[in-house]
């Protein structure tokens, strides 16, 4: 097949093996055999989904994906100096703490 090609996995069976994914006669998703560019899920896939998938592949519409942003949670580690210790009985209190 010529180089500019589009491969679609249409339907739940092609995308992931469907309800027979763990049987002896099903290898799983079709991507194990043929590299797939676009997935159109559904059992059976609706005609609108197939038209939308082809339109996305050709570039007529944008993909409906939400942008994902990851934010590292800030967990400050306090630094304590021995001069800032205050003892009260068996309990030790830190009177001053600085964040790194």
Question: How would you describe what is shown here?
Answer:
This protein is an alpha+beta fold and 100 residues long. The protein has a domain at 8-58. 17% of the residues lie in helices and 18% in strands. It contains two helices and six strands. The protein has a two-stranded parallel ribbon. Strand 1, helix 1 (12-16) and strand 2 (38-40) form a beta-alpha-beta unit. The mean pLDDT is 80.
Question: Could you outline the blueprint of secondary structure elements for this entry?
Answer:
Layout: E1 8-10, H1 12-16, E2 38-40, H2 47-58, E3 78-79, E4 85-88, E5 91-94, E6 98-99
Parallel strand pairs: 1-2
Antiparallel strand pairs: 3-6, 4-5
Helix content: 10-25%
Distance between the termini: 59 Å
Number of helices, where a helix is a run of at least 4 consecutive DSSP H or I residues:
2
Rg over CA atoms, rounded to whole Å, is: 28 Å
Sequence stretches where pLDDT stays below 50 over 5 or more residues: none
Q: What is the general shape?
A: elongated
Give the tally of β-strands.
6
Q: Widest sheet: strand order?
A: 1-2
Question: What proportion strand?
Answer: 15-25%
* Sheet having the most strands: 2 strands, parallel
**What is the ordering of alpha helices and beta strands?**
EHEHEEEE
Mean pLDDT: 80
Q: Helices and strands: which structural class?
A: alpha+beta
């Amino acid at each position: 097949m010529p180089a500019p090609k589009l491969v679609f996995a249409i339907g739940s069976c092609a995308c992931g093996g469907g309800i027979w994914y763990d049987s002896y006669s099903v290898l799983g998703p079709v991507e194990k055999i043929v590299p797939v560019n676009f997935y159109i899920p559904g059992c059976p896939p609706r005609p609108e989904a197939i038209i939308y998938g082809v339109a996305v592949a050709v570039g007529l519409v944008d993909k409906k994906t939400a942008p994902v942003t990851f934010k590292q949670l800030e967990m400050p580690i306090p630094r304590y100096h021995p001069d800032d210790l205050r003892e009260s009985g068996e309990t030790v209190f830190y009177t001053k703490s600085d964040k790194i």
